[in-house]
Amino acid sequence: MPGRHNFLSGTPIDPKPITGSMTVADLVESAFLAYNAARLREACQLLVEKMLEEDVTIGMSLTGALTPAGLGMSAIIPLIENGFVDWIVSTGANLYHDTHFGIGLRMHRGNPRTSDIVLREEGVVRIYDIFFEYDVLLSTDEFYRRIIDGPEFQKEMSTAEFHHLCGKYVAERERILRVGRKSLLAAAYEAAVPIYTSSPGDSSIGMNVAAKALTGNKLRFDVTADVNETAAIVLGAKRSGGKSAVFILGGGSPKNFMLQTEPQIQEVLKIEEKGHDYFLQVTDARPDTGGLSGATPSEAVSWGKIDPDKLPDTVVCYLDSTVALPILTAYALARHKPRKQKRLYDHRTALMTMLVEEHARAAQQEG
User: Fold this and answer.
1) What are the tens digits of pLDDT across the range 315-356?
2) Which of 182, 305, 310, 342 is catalytic?
3) Sign of the C-alpha dihedral, residues 183, 189, 194, 199?
4) Is 50 annotated in the active site?
């Protein structure tokens, strides 16, 4: 008698046959019933039903070669333009390869079994099954070296300010080339979505900045500003009466940099807080090998990263981001109207003022 058991109170598994007329959203709701398909359905529903409420500030972290696969154009830009992403932490590599498209360069689908020795001889670079000419790297390097020679770059700045300036130039190149919106850097510039890089020296962008420093360029990245600005964004979301959500694609440094905002607020700055409210993660890593250490929702609670009262509002999909992100994006666009863009880049000064004031009060109380 199933009705006697609380464990059998879930919806019976009784899907309708899949048809060719089904939308992605319909398919997710009707056929993603178990295993990681069910986790992906739960992630879609968490995103649409809770994270996309108007009072929630959503941070997205990007790890892995997502932009070379076209996911910047197909998924991340639509999320930005519809107000579904408010701030970003990304690897520098994703932003560097994103730039190729915005300045009119091409990447191609290829066969991953092709000999890399032959590709090297032919001047072709491979990212698994993505091929492109070596000259794409040289042209993008030259683009960055030219723009960072500009007077507005001759100072120390946060990576958010740096990427905002870069996005302005990429957007102008898109306009001149008439290629449409290809670059998430340009889209983020237009929407005032701040983009941070947790390891700014760990990419070809950072390599070119380093090269220009050898000849007297004054551009320097202020990583302490990045730490404090991201903490201020999260604190501002809470102090405005709203909530904070993290949307994590992959792992690595961007994942930790986004999650450490709460320990920075609580542990280091001594400001009373409880953790992020919503947690959505797509990963193929495992906690027992250290690859996912500190980032499962329950483990993150012990660090103060996640509000322990909000554990039911967390989902982890053990799935390839290149599979999950297009489905999450399609579902969100089908099931939720666009949100007003928060334009957090424009509010960095006010958010930092609030953080400084709260830290001063907390220090005074502790003293």
Assistant:
1) 999 999 999 999 999 999 999 999 999 999 999 999 999 999
2) 305
3) positive
4) no
